[in-house]
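Sequence in, structure out. Go.
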Amino acid sequence: MCDQTFLAVVFGPCDKCSKEKPLRAVYIKSEQLSYCSLCVEMGLQTSGPNKFGHLAETAFWHAFLGRGSPGAAPRAGDAQQLALTCCRPAGAGGQAGLSLPPGGAVPGLRALGSAGPQQGRGGAGSRVAEAAGASAASPRARRAKELLPPSLSLSPVSLPASLAKMATEGLHENETLASLKTEAESLKGKLEEERAKLHDVELHQVAERVEALGQFVMKTRRTLKGHGNKVLCMDWCKDKRRIVSSSQDGKVIVWDSFTTNKEHAVTMPCTWVMACAYAPSGCAIACGGLDNKCSVYPLTFDKNENMAAKKKSVAMHTNYLSACSFTNSDMQILTASGDGTCALWDVESGQLLQSFHGHGADVLCLDLAPSETGNTFVSGGCDKKAMVWDMRSGQCIQSFETHDSDINSVRYYPSGDAFASGSDDATCRLYDLRADREVAIYSKESIIFGASSVDFSLSGRLLFAGYNDYTINVWDVLKGSRVSILFGHENRVSTLRVSPDGTAFCSGSWDHTLRIWA
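Output:
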């Protein structure tokens, strides 16, 4: 029996009659043969339509419309040739054609036509419809129409009916994509106006009566050396002592911040390990980067044990991993990626629990709400947006777009009611979630380099920000003024985190070192 029939026309000897004629490839018992038109028709007349099967095979239609290649695009006139060649009922006008399934329905063609809108402009379904409409007035088309059964018409309306319905569903009269975009921008403007009505006072005005911070001195207390290239990320363990850091050299190192000793070291299969995180229990670390994966390594007291052998690949994105963070347990982990998404994963099974779609470009950073029962997190990316997400529903519940460039870092205020962001536009900003707006900007005209990382002090009064000009600026959150500049790194500061007890903070830099400040 024939599985499929492909109507790609070539010239050569027929496998049945051995005559030099235009040939059609046919499949009989999964073997490809080349038959001339006469032999194909004789086979149909002698063995009936089942000799070559029904044309309802979707693969046949894809192959025919693609000229033998399932991925090829149809050309003008394909629909006409489809009707003239394939849809002739046997015996009509003395010329037999390939039979249609009962009722004249062609499921494969309907599927192909309905796929048009999903493929965007120029999809296969839309081009078939256009070809049918363009050729409907020709003499051959009229002849084909006479030969067609009533259930299958060549009219441009009946062929792409599902296409037309999908393309116009939900659209009203005189509506276009441009008009809908204009309406969306108008509604966005009205929302901003409503926000502005609640903007009655600035944060620094409220803080005028607050006592100014006295002078304080912070300096480098420890320097952690061991990475062979740029330090890209770091995180504190909950024990307030251990630190995990990752680097462009492909190494992930666990440090004792008191003694500066290295406790564990892992060599990743790729360079640019851009994300690392400590598990809440302190018994595991997670990391990833250009390998598009988030890998979890359990930590043991045996320093000679091969950690790579116990590696577990938990998350898989379609682009680089930019950030990761465990939730309030070791069993779930949040990841952000250059593919524009964030995702929540089960560590044990590696199963995707929830995905978060909404960013229009690479997601560069995320931070989990500090509350023990918090079910939200904030993310920032190359689309200049900071977005707050509900982990249970996967929906974005708040969005802020006031930065002028990529957002490199986001961090929740200790109370969880606000968050700060650092951007390549050389500013840090504070957003109040209850007021649903930006409430402060931390910048100076003399600062022209981007902020790569931000974090709050334990009280929330200070905001530490690492910059690409090798410095760390300390900001008074309430008054919006800079209270200190810390020097020490010899290249841009790439990461910065305050210790869990608030007594120190650690910064990582492209100068291959980490520094602990207190």
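Check: Confidence is low (pLDDT under 50) at residues 1-9, 47-141, 147-160. Residues 116 and 352 are 30 Å apart (CA to CA).
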